[in-house]
Amino acid sequence: MSVENTGTPVPEAAGRVFGDRVEIASAYVSLLEQHGVERGLIGPREVDRLWDRHVLNSAVLGECIPGGARVIDVGSGAGLPGVPLAIARPDLDIVLLEPMARRVDWLHEVADRLDLHLTIVRGRAEEREIRRQLSEADVVTARAVAPLARLAAWCLPLVRPDGLLLALKGVSANDEIERDRLEVAKAGGVDPEVRLCGAGLLETASTVVVIRRARPPAGKDRRGRGRPRSQLRG
């Protein structure tokens, strides 16, 4: 790994979140500082708050993800939250899904420069071929992608039954759940709730909406056709 160090101080919380991989996280921050604005990945005002507002905010999402999970990060963009998750949780099998070619190129560069084991796919969650290729994930993540109703319709088809959709949201997360509850249910989501990740680690904990994918009715697969109970996932 060869990344020019910009000299930005590493916050104390980063050592606790990333452990012995904090140097990799610091290199990722340096890449965003050097190239993020010019490549349209972040706004100019975000450069001074990359650690707290973006990288740590994303990495603590791992508190909601079980060990060894297969994760799809929808609309990965600059690599948030997927890249910080991959650094903090090398046990995860992470797919970065991004529709824009220039951002896909960036993600490949980041994976190569930081020696991260990531699968990078160009496409949108709502596309039929993407759903065929990437379905049955344990967890799908999304950050600043869309309102909850639209997000559920796009992302829940990628989640296995009893798997999770994790949406990083802001202070209005509870209001969004109430507003979009019916649409989330129609998309197959149940038990939406807000969790705070990084409490006690970060100055401002990350607000995450957690939605579980409902199981299909007993004796039917996800398209409604009957099949033996023994073939249903537990």
From TrEMBL:
Residues 222-234 have a biased composition (Basic residues). InterPro entries: rRNA_ssu_MeTfrase_G, SAM-dependent_MTases_sf. Specifically methylates the N7 position of a guanine in 16S rRNA. Its main location: cytoplasm. It comes from Amycolatopsis marina. HAMAP family: 16SrRNA_methyltr_G. It comes from the Bacteria. It is found in: Cytoplasm. It holds the Pfam family GidB. Belongs to the methyltransferase superfamily. RNA methyltransferase RsmG family. Its EC number is 2.1.1.-. PANTHER family: S-ADENOSYL-L-METHIONINE-DEPENDENT METHYLTRANSFERASES SUPERFAMILY PROTEIN. S-adenosyl-L-methionine binds at G75, L80, A125, E126, R143. GO terms for cellular component: cytosol. The lineage of its organism: Bacteria, Bacillati, Actinomycetota, Actinomycetes, Pseudonocardiales. The keyword Hydrolase does not apply. SUPFAM superfamilies: S-adenosyl-L-methionine-dependent methyltransferases. This is Ribosomal RNA small subunit methyltransferase G.
